Amino acid sequence: MAPRSAEPGYLVTKVVAVDADAGQNAWLSYQLLRATEPGLFAVALHSGEVRTSRPLTERDPSRQALVVVAEDNRKPPQSSMATLHELLVDGFSGGHVRLGDAPARQEQEPDGTVTVYLVVSLASISFLFLAAVVSLVVVKLHRSRRAEERYLPAV
């Protein structure tokens, strides 16, 4: 999140990447590949800091998507991309913290079939357990009555 009152140079976030190489091959560089509003954000080449590059206006969309690439120094270079979703807000309040309704989220719950299978399985197992307990009680009561009938004198 970034406030709409942010001045140019405001630190919005920082992208961090790690390379397992050593020496010169481990040097990483960062680059802003795509942005919802080009020219609004800039990424520092070696630190990965994402900063505002101009004042925010009311015409800037409140939801911003940035694609940042981290690339190592080997030949040929290897790279990795990260998509950042930023909210431009007038103030930091609890209402803006609800990130679950952001339309760009790709991670959705799978359809409810797994949940249905789990609920049906749990209900079946519970029913079988209850039936086993009731059967056990009935058998015990039946045996205890037989035992009483054996030892009681006939009237």
Automatic annotation (TrEMBL):
It is a single-pass type I membrane protein. One of its GO terms (cellular component) is plasma membrane. GO terms for biological process: homophilic cell adhesion via plasma membrane adhesion molecules. The keyword DNA-binding does not apply. Gene3D superfamilies: Cadherins. The chain crosses the membrane at residues 116-139. It is found in: Cell membrane. SUPFAM superfamilies: Cadherin-like (SSF49313). It holds the Pfam family Cadherin_C_2. GO terms for molecular function: calcium ion binding. Keywords: Calcium, Cell adhesion, Cell membrane, Glycoprotein, Membrane, Repeat, Signal, Transmembrane, Transmembrane helix. CDD domains: Cadherin_repeat. Residues 3-105 form the Cadherin domain. This is Cadherin domain-containing protein.
